[in-house]
């Protein structure tokens, strides 16, 4: 039996960076620019943050990718088109976390959109997008509870119902506890079909201790979804970009070196190939 994957693993506790969201937007993906706009919005500070004193609070970071400067991955950001789209409903506490992997999806797939989740303020832009007849939105969530089994679907069933619409994978981006709260407490999500992801993948994410090897981070869920939808090229690009991010950042935390030559070379070769096309 395939393992059950969660859009974001339980017990995930990443530090929040003191990165300045008003820094330059030159060269940033549209997704990252929107995340920084959300981070700088007045409502972001309705509930003051606790002082950040965890490991990494004084690390000098790249103003683009937010990684430690010695692990900057900006050179390897490689946009690619796909026949599906991702919409990320991001918990407001996620916007300043440099270890957030939804950004990797946004960097790789330019059509990716991000919306801020707050319990009492539904994102108007998402409400409007959900009504757009061009799209077929699916909320990515486990199929482990009886009360919403009538909403659970599979990719073959989705393909049979598309009728020319663009499939959209709606990811709930937060800790597992936050994701479940977002799923349960957002009335505007209650009629969406639920697409669980079953895969043989085990997590390679180094920046947290997973409760289970089957608990994938958001970027890994994105890769699995692209593979499921037969978007092989986009899945490969995101996989290599995730490798550079994951192993490079992990090595920086351990103050060790990482052999990323293969993933880096793959992305640079792909970029060169696309430039010549």
From TrEMBL:
<keyword id="KW-0949">S-adenosyl-L-methionine</keyword>
<dbReference type="Pfam" id="PF03942">
    <property type="entry name" value="DTW"/>
</dbReference>
<feature type="domain" description="DTW">
    <location>
        <begin position="58"/>
        <end position="254"/>
    </location>
</feature>
<feature type="compositionally biased region" description="Polar residues">
    <location>
        <begin position="8"/>
        <end position="24"/>
    </location>
</feature>
<dbReference type="InterPro" id="IPR039262">
    <property type="entry name" value="DTWD2/TAPT"/>
</dbReference>
<feature type="region of interest" description="Disordered">
    <location>
        <begin position="1"/>
        <end position="24"/>
    </location>
</feature>
<keyword id="KW-0819">tRNA processing</keyword>
<protein>
    <recommendedName>
        <fullName>tRNA-uridine aminocarboxypropyltransferase</fullName>
        <ecNumber>2.5.1.25</ecNumber>
    </recommendedName>
</protein>
<dbReference type="InterPro" id="IPR005636">
    <property type="entry name" value="DTW"/>
</dbReference>
<keyword id="KW-0808">Transferase</keyword>
């Amino acid at each position: 039996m395939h393992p059950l994957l969660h859009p974001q693993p339980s017990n995930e506790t990443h530090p929040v960076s003191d990165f300045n969201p008003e820094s330059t937007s030159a060269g940033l993906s549209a997704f990252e620019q929107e995340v920084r706009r959300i981070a700088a919005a007045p409502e972001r500070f309705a509930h003051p943050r606790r002082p950040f004193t965890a490991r990494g609070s004084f690390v000098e970071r790249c103003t683009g990718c937010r990684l430690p400067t010695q692990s900057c991955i900006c050179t390897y950001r490689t946009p690619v088109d796909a026949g599906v789209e991702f919409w990320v409903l991001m918990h407001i506490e996620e916007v300043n976390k440099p270890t957030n992997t939804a950004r990797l999806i946004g960097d790789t797939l330019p059509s990716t959109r991000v919306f801020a989740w707050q319990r009492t303020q539904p994102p108007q832009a998402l409400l409007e997008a959900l009504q757009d007849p061009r799209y077929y939105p699916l909320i990515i969530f486990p199929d482990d509870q009886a009360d919403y089994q009538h909403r659970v679907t599979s990719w073959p069933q989705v393909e049979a119902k598309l009728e020319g619409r663009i499939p959209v994978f709606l990811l709930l981006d937060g800790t597992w506890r936050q994701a479940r709260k977002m799923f349960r407490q957002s009335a505007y999500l209650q009629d969406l079909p639920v697409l669980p992801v079953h895969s043989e993948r085990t997590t390679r994410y180094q920046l947290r201790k997973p409760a289970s090897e089957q608990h994938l981070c958001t970027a890994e869920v994105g890769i699995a979804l692209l593979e499921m939808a037969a978007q092989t090229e986009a899945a490969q690009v995101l996989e290599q970009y995730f490798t550079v991010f994951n192993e490079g950042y992990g090595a920086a935390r351990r103050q060790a070196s990482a052999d990323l030559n293969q993933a880096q070379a793959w992305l640079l070769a792909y970029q060169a190939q696309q430039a010549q096309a």
